[in-house]
């Protein structure tokens, strides 16, 4: 009988399972992150070395041209953008809620009308809606929007926003426990009163974050109203920056307009995120 010799396997790195060699999952993850950071820094360094910073400053950050945007940037362009956004949001909110109730109605024609409307206005670009609004007076002689162009903008933004808000409201209403409606009806409360007093307020609280996000999207989408041919007193931020950029043959006004959008949308987006976190905690 001969003695058998057992050869011990080499030990792997610290933290790795016995009998295995190579990097542990944590080490591989760290190495992967390090490589990604190195590649990102290399890309940034390459772009920075290739860019002509003097030309960029002269064409997009020229102080003399930036001064020309004030004070109309805030007193005219930003003010009109806010008015356009709020008016479109108000119309979209009210009409979207009606569409959601129609979508949930037991009356089939109401559901059909709601579904067709939502699919059309969610599938058609908003720019095309504004172009159609622009030609409506030609198709209907004597027709005129009230408070033009504010009425035109409110209708254009509101019609599209309503289609998206309708689906949001529908999801919120369906998320309210059915027992809420059943309890109200058992107390003798009419259906519409129970819906308006109990279900809809709860649904709005549920969908508040996505509705607030829709307001941010409308603020940006208001840039499409340039197709309506706005005057100097009714321009919004994008049109304002575009006109000044053309007058000065310089991109600084466009950069200023973009920074103004960020001045509004970034804090608003942070607020939406906090609302979402609060809603998640409340659940």
From TrEMBL:
Annotated ABC transmembrane type-1 domain residues: 78-272
Transmembrane regions listed in the UniProt entry: 34-56, 76-102, 123-143, 149-169, 190-208, 254-273
Family designation: Belongs to the binding-protein-dependent transport system permease family.
Any coiled-coil regions, as ranges: none
Keyword Transmembrane helix: yes
Major subcellular location class: membrane
Biased composition (Low complexity): 8-19
CDD domains, per the entry: TM_PBP2
Region (Disordered) residue spans: 1-25
Entry keyword set: Amino-acid transport, Cell membrane, Membrane, Transmembrane, Transmembrane helix, Transport
Compartments where located: Cell membrane
Protein name in the entry: Amino acid ABC transporter permease
Organism: Actinomadura fulvescens
Membrane topology (UniProt): Multi-pass membrane protein
């Amino acid at each position: 009988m001969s003695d058998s010799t057992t050869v011990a396997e080499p030990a792997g790195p610290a933290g790795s399972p016995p009998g295995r060699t190579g990097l542990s999952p944590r080490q591989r993850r760290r190495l992967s992150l390090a490589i990604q950071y190195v590649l990102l820094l290399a890309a940034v360094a390459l772009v920075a070395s290739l860019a002509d910073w003097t030309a960029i400053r002269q064409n997009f950050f020229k102080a003399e041209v930036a001064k020309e945007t004030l004070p109309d940037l805030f007193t005219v362009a930003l003010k009109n953008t806010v008015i356009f956004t709020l008016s479109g949001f108000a119309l979209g909110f009210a009409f979207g809620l009606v569409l959601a109730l129609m979508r949930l109605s037991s009356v089939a024609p109401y559901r059909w009308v709601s579904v067709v409307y939502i699919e059309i206005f969610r599938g058609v670009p908003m720019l095309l809606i504004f172009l159609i609004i622009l030609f409506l007076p030609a198709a209907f002689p004597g027709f005129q929007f009230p408070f033009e162009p504010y009425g035109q903008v409110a209708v254009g933004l509101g019609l599209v926003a309503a289609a998206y808000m309708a689906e949001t409201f529908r999801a919120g209403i369906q998320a309210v426990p059915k027992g809420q409606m059943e309890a109200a009806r058992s107390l003798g409360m009419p259906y519409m009163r129970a819906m308006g007093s109990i279900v809809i307020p709860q649904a709005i609280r549920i969908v508040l974050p996505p509705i607030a996000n829709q307001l941010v999207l409308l603020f940006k989408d208001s840039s499409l109203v340039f197709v309506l041919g706005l005057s100097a007193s009714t321009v919004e931020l994008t049109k304002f920056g575009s006109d000044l950029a053309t007058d000065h043959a310089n991109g600084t006004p466009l950069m200023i307009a973009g920074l103004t959008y960020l001045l509004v949308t970034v804090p608003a987006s942070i607020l939406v995120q906090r609302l979402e976190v609060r809603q998640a905690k409340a659940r």
